[in-house]
């Protein structure tokens, strides 16, 4: 398995991808490069322009093999992510079903996928990260790497920043975010620009759970999957199976 490292036009016959995969890449590229309706996350658009993203493809999220395939993709990415660029993220597109589910159904399968992935992880959970998602410093980890996870779905309408024709995930390593935040003046200057773009992009106001990592009152998992309204799950649906010692 090889992660796609750059976008090519759908008509490029040199790219050996199925039609839906080419379309997902094309739609994603169009969104990241749109100069009129600018995607809110400025670091993401920079990463796309610089070619720091890597792309993987999985079956539809309800397919019994989807979790296993996602784990394989994340594992491959994690082994080489530091060589992909300072703004690198992993983008995973899932094949579309014939029907579009509702926001809460996609939320449920999102957390089920992360739980399935975690069950394949034989690496000890990082000692500096709480295992309880209800702690401010918790975040999703796989094979010792810490990730912020973003989910986009075909069901989102008010939050266009979380809408995409294909169910998709973006996993950003914590070291990428740490590098960004290591330049506090730059980060502080960009933050209001991101908020302004978000206000223009979505018809819903910014979700109340969008808070800095580790800050008081923040629960990181609530930012992974934002609903179309201002509600959040009462508790984290993520379930990590503790590996038994052999």
UniProtKB/TrEMBL annotation:
Domain of life from the UniProt record: Bacteria
InterPro entries (alphabetical): Uncharacterised_YqcI/YcgG
Originating organism: Paenibacillus graminis
Database matches in Pfam families: YqcI_YcgG
Name used for this protein in its record: YqcI/YcgG family protein
